[in-house]
Amino acid sequence: LWRTTLEKTAAGYVAGNQLFASVGLLITDCAISPKGELVICCHSGPPDWGSGPAKDGRLFKIRYSDPAVPQPVLAWATDPMTSVIAFDRPLTASDWQNLAQRVNVEGGRFVGAGDRFEAIRPGYAVVRAQQTEPAFQLPVASAALGSDGRSIVIKTEPRSQAVGYAITLDVPRKKEGIKQADAIDLAHTLGGLATTWKGNDGSSWAGWLPHPNFAVAKTLTRGSAAHDVAWDRLSQPGRLVLQTQLDLSHMLQPAVQPGSKLDYTPEPETVTITLKSDAALSVNIPGCIVKPGGREVSFTKKVTSDDWQGLTIELATPASTLEATFTTAIDSRPRPLGIRRFLMPFATKPVPTAATAAIPQIVGGNYANGHRLFMGKATCFTCHQIRGEGHAVGPDLSNTVHRDYASVLRDLEDPNATINPDAVAYQVTLKNGSSAVGTRIGETATELRLAAPGGQVTTVKKPEIVKTTALPVSLMPSGLLAALSEQERKDLMTFLLSEPQRDE
Questions:
Q1: Which of 121, 158, 295, 503 is deepest in the core (most CB within 10 A)?
Q2: How far is CA 334 from the centre of its chain?
Q3: Strand residue runs (E) in 33-149
Q4: Which pLDDT score, from 0 to 100, does residue 111 have?
Q5: pTM for the whole thing?
Q6: CB-based burial, 370-385: b 16+ in 10 Å, e otherwise
Q7: What are the beta bridge partners of residue 342?
Q8: How far apart are CA 225 and CA 145, in angstroms?
Q9: In this predicted structure, what is the pLDDT of residue 162?
């Protein structure tokens, strides 16, 4: 379960997401009760598309049993060795003894808070590849309460890779109720801006901000004592310096799923970044255009790779606004930069890894023989198309190359486990007493077209229909794999899960 904090800017909303709970069941819906509790509805069976859950559902209410208990509001990295967790109220020192022994920090490209609670994952190859990505433990050197009494400061071995980091903090539960883990799990990244301020009177402040827009940063740091001090400082005469790196990749062009390729090469994006303030500002990037008055600065860059753009912003305080927007060559409408676009100056790009993971279960499989089985003995072609071959009755299987072995095998062994909503079978009863069974493949205002196994299409007149009933089971019979040898099963799975190859 995620909580999203939104701040509206002149160019649109900026969001900050926080994971606050994990449930070991599939959540189907949620609502807020009249008392302010979060009510979630779950079903206890496996994920299902077309026929509905097969087991009893569960309802849970989530609420604060003790509103006076300090809650974590924010976690961030201030330098390569320091992470800070801010709480919304003072911490009692006696509750936070031996902190270094109670803190665990893990990192990795796909590491997130509470990963150990995740019980259901999508059956896709990219998810399987993510699960095989290496994660690492970050040794904790020390951990102690911060000087403000409302934060925990954690010192670790140096880290610079801009990956996901998960902090697990052992905290015994004192309240009765549904058993919960005796820990607080927090996620943070190396995102943000290193911030320093020097006042004209000699005072100073140094810290971290999640976003250069002051309104956004205030909203996303609400409850942090360190940032309450920052906003007070920035209202006084002085000089503010923000240092960051901008990730300008895929601004409007979406990223391609790992392991996939487009059939064309898109033009590099040309991105213009604009910074506006009610105070004079400067940016240290060659080619910047500064408007008269010095309160609006813009620069343009053609993004040809995933490289980051270093950026230092300086402006005089007091200042009440600082906006950061972008446009591209294909769309001149200004949009706000999201928080993930900003990386700390010490952050480095993650080490690239393989986009896909090997599938040990199909080692030794023969792609060409699998193709022949699909089009013959296994009878898959009677209901499915794959890369243009076969009959379009059930789901097109051209995307099975992006799914994982377990989910495809489950579909073959138990076709009724997860029925695709686009391939639900219907029985149509007509006025003359006859009936037709098949999947809907098209209709007009007066006719309905149904496809049956083998590709036979039946067209019925809608005025002749008495009743249409969705069947609770798939048209695909169970036990198809029983007719295949072990090697033939491996060959068929090789064909379904591999990139197209030339038959030999």
A1: 295
A2: 24
A3: 38-43, 57-62, 72-79, 82-87, 103-108, 136-137, 140-145
A4: 93
A5: 0.84
A6: bbbbbbeebbbbbbbb
A7: 246
A8: 13
A9: 96
The partner residues of 316 in beta bridges, in order of sequence, read 239
Looking from the CA of 212 toward its CB, the CA atoms found within 13 Å total: 29
Give the whole-angstrom CA distance, residue 248 versus residue 254: 12
Q: Which residues touch 390 (CB under 8 Å, ≥6 apart)?
A: 374, 375, 380, 381, 382, 383, 384
Give the residue among 63, 88, 52 at the shortest CA–CA distance from 178.
63
| Residues contacting residue 218 through CB under 8 Å, at least 6 positions apart | 227, 231
Place of tokens 């000089």: 239
* CA separation for the pair 256, 475 (Å, rounded): 33
- Residue 44, CA distances (Å) to 54, 124, 413 in order: 8, 21, 21
Q: In one letter, which amino acid is 135?
A: A
Please report which helix (H) or strand (E) contains residue 127, including its range.
Answer: helix 125-132
pLDDT of residue 504: 45
End-to-end CA distance of the chain: 49
| Ranges of the chain with pLDDT below 50 | 504
Q: What is the pLDDT of residues 159-194, one digit of tens each?
A: 999 999 999 999 876 666 667 778 899 999 999 999
| Token reading at 369 | 């023989």
Domains recognised in the chain with CATH numbers: 1-63 (no CATH), 69-190 (2.60.40.1220), 193-252+268-343 (2.60.120), 360-497 (2.30.30.100)
Where b means 16+ CB within 10 Å and e means fewer, 418-436 reads bbeeebbbeebeeeeeeeb
β strands within 33-108, DSSP E: 38-43, 57-62, 72-79, 82-87, 103-108
> 79: which strand partners?
82
- Of the candidates 39, 43, 84, the residue with the CA atom closest to the CA atom of residue 62: 39
Which tokens sit at 267? 């033009």
Exposure string over 176-213, b if 16+ CB within 10 A, otherwise e: eeeeeeebbbbbbbbbbbbbebbeeeeeebebbbbbbb
Identify each DSSP E strand in 233-321 by its residue range. 238-247, 269-277, 281-283, 289-290, 296-303, 308-317
CA distance 237 to 142: 36
* 151, β-bridge pairs: 86
Alpha helices by DSSP H, 162-262: 214-220, 225-233
In this prediction, residue 172 carries a pLDDT of 74
pLDDT for the residue numbered 50 = 53
Asked if the bond preceding 318 is cis, omega within 30° of 0, the reply is yes
pLDDT at 158: 96
297: β partners: 275, 290
CB 328 within 8 A of CB 271: yes
The pair of structure tokens assigned to 37 is 């509790």
Q: What angle do CA 486, 487, 490 make, to 5 degrees?
A: 90
